[in-house]
Write a structure and sequence with these properties.
Strands 2-1-3-4 form a four-stranded parallel sheet, sandwiched between helices. A four-stranded parallel sheet has the order 6-5-7-8, with helices on both faces. Helix content is 47%, strand content 10%. The two termini are 30 Å apart. By secondary structure, the protein is an alpha/beta fold. Helix 3 crosses helix 4 and helix 6 crosses helix 9. It is built from twelve helices and eight strands.
Length: 289
């Protein structure tokens, strides 16, 4: 099983633990990762400002993956949603595809739509499978309650992302359950983390984050689990800001999924980048069998 890894911008710069843990888990599962240093921004930051430039930025990355003759493994859900959206739009409109390829031809590239875009969770769930994952668990979690945060861009629009049921998703919960942890139901499970508003309206951004954290704590969660760098930054670094600025005493610590399953597979916390989280999540190791 071989993929070209699309990291996006935020993971290498701000959430390196996501990359480290995803690589460690992939290696344990026999997923071969091929890097491509030519990948650039997915286009998401300008998606609603300049549609043609967004499509060109996304298509360039997809064309590079096609040049490798590999499907794309994506960690960031914003990147995943943007790349899926671009692929869908280009496929539906031959004139846009022609225009995009005229630009790409200047670099000797062409996008034809043969590369499949897969999120890390989808690869684990569909390509590896729950049963195989369970076989790889050497130290299952016991007695820990996890609140899964699905994020927005992988779920919607569902006819484009094809990730999971946008109203009642199950993939993330079943993956968490495979580690031995209990994935709990909580009212604000599918609500936005607040990251899109950070830097635009910080107060509103923190309000949304605090609301979700309070709801998760009220539902009995011991930890949050995410699979997107923006969400992780919001629940880790921004939660730290909220604690300082608003005197929020109760915290709901956040862990990226490959860290969670990596620990259950017996991978060391150091290899999973546990020390790179701003808020100390080492307590979760006490729940390992």
């Amino acid at each position: 099983m071989k993929f070209t890894l699309f990291l996006g911008c935020n993971i290498p710069a701000r959430v390196q633990q996501y990359e480290l843990s995803a690589r460690a888990v992939s290696d344990k599962l026999g997923i071969e990762i091929v890097d491509n240093r030519e990948f650039k921004c997915c286009g998401n930051p300008i998606r609603n400002m300049d549609n043609k430039t967004f499509l060109l930025m996304a298509a360039r990355n997809l064309a590079l993956a096609e040049l490798q003759d590999l499907n794309m493994l994506v960690l960031c859900k914003c990147c995943f949603g943007s790349l899926k959206k671009a692929a869908h739009v280009i496929k539906q409109d031959p004139l846009i595809q022609k225009e995009v390829n005229e630009f790409l031809a200047k670099e000797g590239l062409r996008y034809s739509g043969t590369t499949h875009i897969k999120h890390f969770l989808s690869v684990l769930y569909h390509d590896i499978g729950i049963n195989v994952l369970k076989e790889k668990i050497t130290r299952p979690f016991k007695g820990v309650k996890i609140a899964t945060h699905y994020g927005c861009h992988a779920l919607r629009p569902s006819d484009i992302t094809e990730f999971d049921n946008p109203v009642a998703p199950v993939i993330f919960d079943e993956l968490v359950a495979a580690t031995g942890a209990e994935s709990i139901d909580w009212p604000l499970k599918l609500e936005c983390c607040g990251a899109p508003m950070l830097g635009v309206n910080d107060s509103l951004s923190m309000d949304l984050t605090e609301k979700k954290l309070t709801d998760g704590i009220r539902a009995g969660a011991d930890f949050l689990c995410v699979a997107c760098p923006y969400c992780q930054m919001q629940f880790d670094k921004v939660q730290h800001m909220i604690s300082s600025l608003r005197n929020m005493n109760d915290r709901l610590l956040s862990i990226v999924f490959p860290q969670l399953i990596g620990l259950a597979m017996g991978i060391s916390g150091k290899a999973l980048g546990m020390n790179l989280n701003m808020l100390d999540i080492s307590r979760i190791e006490s729940f390992l069998a």
